[in-house]
Amino acid sequence: MKDLIESIINRVIKENQLGGQTAYRAPLLGYAQAGDPLFQQLKTAVGPGHLLPIDLLPEARTVLAFFLPFTKELVKSNREHPYVDRSWALAYIESNALISLCCEAIATALSVQGMKAAWQQPTHNFDPVQLCSHWSHKHVAYVCGLGEFGLHHMLITPSGCAGRFGSLVIDLPLSPSPRQTDQRCFFYAQGKCLACVKKCPSRALTQDGLDKQKCYSYLLEVDSFYSDLGVCDACGKCATCGPCAVIDG
Ligand code: SF4
Ligand code: SF4
Which ligand 2 atom is nearest residue 161's CA? Predict the structure, then answer.
């Protein structure tokens, strides 16, 4: 079944690339048991309103998360652009659409075999005042063993942090993935780097934490700047400027 799910994601990416401009490296997938106690802990780590897998699907048995890593070229373009590169803003929009297509395709394939799946939209599923997500895909991906958090509050996978996450809850029991133990953030591992902090245009990110309100204000500014593209409250400077952006790519 894991092979089927992976092949569906690869097929949807391939089909979508015919119509979109964003390219991806090979997707990563991770799995966790729906009853993993870490999901309960997300109510503390993310916010009390964070949902449990059974809130999405009462018959939940497994949670699967996937990561679509961006290419080196896209990362470089956003890293070097004096503002947020248009291609980065577009990649955000296209990737969110692609993630929804992947989830729909997986759910359809499972339903043919009598199984159920449920998911939350790729973005904008958060409390607009507190800016706490009801279902944080990157935190879910952490539980599913896809990486460790860096100083920039992004999940650093074996392929880096520049990319987008999606996740689904399914009623089929599948073996969980081992949790990552490699610390790929140079600051946490060696006490140096801080590239993400230095490049944050809004100064929302510091060594001491992330001011989500400041960050989101900046993202809304980018959204206005690229208003012709659609909703693109994205910046990604912290995700593209450091050595954690692209790994093995
Ligand atoms: S997304 Fe942009 S504004 Fe927000 S923390 Fe990262 S670099 Fe700073
Ligand atoms: S840019 Fe450097 S300090 Fe920031 S998360 Fe990546 S490795 Fe850590």
Answer: 6
